[in-house]
Amino acid sequence: MDADLYVPGDGWLHRTDPRVKFLMSLALLVLCLVWRSWPFILGVLALEHIMLLTDHIPWKNIVWVWRILAVIIALIVVLWPIFDRSGTHVIADWDWLRLTRENLVMAAVMGLRIPALGFACFLTLFTTSQAKLIRGAVAVGMPYSAGLTLATALRYIPVFARIVTQVRDAQRARGLDLSGEGARMRGIRNPFTLMLARARAWVPVIVAVLIRAYRMSRSVGWAMESRGLGLPGVKRSYRVRLAMRPADWGILAVTVALTALAVVIMMLS
Amino acid sequence: MSDAPIITAHHLSWWYTPQTDTGEPVQALDGLDFAIQSGSFTGIIGPTGAGKSTLCMAFAGIIPNPEDGVMRGGMTVAGYDTAECTVAQLSSAVGYVQQDPESQLFCASVEDELAFPMESRGVNPDLIDQRIDALLHLVGMDGYRHRVPTSLSGGQMQRVAIAAALAARPQVLVLDEPTAALDPEGKRDVCAVVEKLRAQRKMTIIMAEQDTDDLARYADHIMVLDHGSIIMQGDASLFTAHRDRLTELGVALPGAEPPTPGTSPMPVRQDDDESAPAIRFQSVTYRYAQGGNDSAALDDVSFTIPRGEFVGLIGRNGSGKTTLARHLNGMLHPTSGTVTVDGLDVSRHRVGEMAAHVGVAFQNPDHQIFCSSTRDEIAFGPACLGVPRDEIDRRVDRMLIRFGLEDVADQSPATLGYGQRRLVAFASVLVMDTPIVVLDEPTAGLDRRLSGMMLDAVSERNRQGATMVMISHDMRVVRERCTMLITLDDGRLCACGRLALAADDPRRPAGLTGRRIDGR
């Protein structure tokens, strides 16, 4: 992912009006947050993959999402049973860890929920260009400056990821040890002390990245102003014009119907 | 060119707000008085840190607002008093192109980038599309309309930035060192666009540059800045009339770029059989797992570099120079083949371990600067390598003196000007005293005085026995400093040999034999 989050294409999701995609993403986000049912979340995850694949989003982009979420998923699945000691069907009980059928199921639900939420966002982010994203946000009532800020922040995520890599390489080339090997060689064995040493080793990277990010964001701000952003007394025009096609209305109707169905089933269960 | 000035400055001075609580305001412009005629081409030259970029920011209205600082005097651009209007208002008259292409292309496609200034002015959407095509044609970028800006080369990105600056049809175009971050091909492309603009459009062009070749050809007004003051101005004849003074300032004088030097078969030192070479590549192939195309970034590359050489690593952008350099300290490991550096198989060692053997000076100083003082910044590398504290102090003092950084030793390096940040970053690599040093475009964007200071320090380390590998597009520097040349093209080794040196050249190693080292 060395370019934008947006994946250029002409699939059905790409052609869908951004406002409809916002609603789809929002409905999936809310339902996944509210309904703690693993079959439902698993179903949502499958549906999201089907939608992306039928839009011809390449597998490598889908795998990239899984990779960036993997650490968070693993942390949640591992930590959930430690902090949630609830449940009556006890599988194992040690002093600090109580494994029950209920907290393991909940760990799985929480683990599935992260990618379900992530892919709900990427349904829109992968398939909506920056211009349409801003145009759609403005059309649903968001101020232009907020829409531009959001879209620019998303646009620069991969740029900042590359800056982190460049800075990390530059610091490692000066002998900075980010692997924790140096701390182990100094005889540190305590895992928390090791973790702290590794976290502290990242300070030179984080500070340098922040300095670089500050300089870049300042230049970006100047570039925007020098291209007329905030020109007083002018009503902004938009090259991208939005119009709901029959297909968009159809997708909107299906989204509303499926959301209503999910809400009914959730209430009945 | 009209007689009426489109820009006038009256006693214009500017002080940057100090970036630390205890800091002093930094004066960047000092009582400038000048007038720029409508339709003229003005070149702004001067050493690094002379105030060229600050003056360009003043033309665009970034100074006095939104940049923090204090302004005295004033400037009028196309009827706008820059102190009384916003940057956006002034943008109707001034198009501004910054040095770094990536920081000024904030949209996700080329067409969005060009549409933005027109949308900001409420231009009819039906007209926007037509104007985008015309602008792309003007800068020679037809067919790039839907491309993601970050997928373009530096020269292409800068041409898109010029097109975006022209989208609002300004009367003045300000270019702040637009070619400083570009390779020769990118420079040629951008200069061709400026030349085309000069021929086709009746607009005022102001270009700050280190490279004076094009200014000597096109500019009808040259301003020379030093320490924020205009020390001379006139037409291009100034380059010949004040040759000595400009050289003394560190300004590169116009002159043809020397051709790529030739190489001769690779003779070796008599003692080569007894000592391991500094660097050996054996059938090295590298393919990027992500983001690369199908072809190998390095394709079956083999060569040997004896110790103590000063190697120029040259080739076009994308030829594999950076990929090769990243193998030297283990940032990349070959897909196949073996890289041996300072007697170590690089694949078996971490980057942190290789740092004791190979120092890498990156082009962008902001990749590494993070400490609260220049002294600590320079000391960071040796401290990571476990060098004793008193030895670190001794080395750091030596570097501070060597690069004239004593006065800023306790100042945060992040608050220094670009030239001094480059020196700090460079010093913080040289201070590690590694037997091999890799330099990535050490002279890019610097004046002759600063680049000479850096290269003299490098040559000194080289004379002391260190092996230098320098990525460079600057054939003047390669001819002056290198003893060996490696040329890459499309990932393949095109040439590897010793530069043809005169018999009395001090770089010519003693004890050469006529025996040839075969690459493998």
Sheet with most strands: strand arrangement of chain B: 11-22-21-15-20-19-18
Rough outline of chain A: flat
Describe the sheet with the most strands of chain A: 2 strands, antiparallel
Got a strand count of chain A? 2
Helix content of chain B: 25-40%
Give the beta-strand count of chain B: 23
Discrete helix count of chain A: 11
Q: Segments of chain A where pLDDT lies below 50 for 5+ residues?
A: none
Quickly give the structural class of chain B.
alpha/beta
Integer-rounded radius of gyration of chain B: 25 Å
Mean pLDDT of chain B: 88
Order of helices and strands of chain A: HHHHEEHHHHHHH
Structural class of the secondary structure composition of chain A? mainly alpha
Oligomer: heterodimer
End-to-end Cα distance of chain A:
41 Å
Describe how the helices and strands are arranged.
The complex is a heterodimer of chains A (269) and B (520).
Chain A (H helix, E strand, L loop, with lengths): L11 H4 L2 H17 L3 H17 L4 H25 L6 E4 L4 E3 H25 L4 H10 L4 H29 L8 H5 L5 H11 L1 H23 L20 H23 L1
Antiparallel strand pairs in A: 1-2
Helix pairs in contact in A: 2-5, 2-11, 3-5, 4-5, 6-7, 7-10
Chain B lengths: L4 E12 L9 E12 L3 E5 L6 H9 L8 E9 L2 E2 L5 H4 L3 E4 L12 H11 L4 H14 L15 H13 L5 E5 L7 H17 L3 E5 L4 H6 L2 E6 L2 E6 L3 H4 L1 H7 L13 E2 L2 E3 L9 E8 L11 E8 L4 E5 L6 H8 L7 E6 L2 E2 L5 H4 L3 E4 L12 H11 L4 H14 L15 H13 L5 E5 L7 H16 L3 E5 L3 H7 L2 E6 L2 E8 L12 E5 L4
Parallel strand pairs in B: 3-8, 3-9, 6-7, 7-8, 15-20, 15-21, 18-19, 19-20
Antiparallel strand pairs in B: 1-2, 1-4, 4-5, 9-10, 11-22, 12-23, 13-14, 13-16, 16-17, 21-22
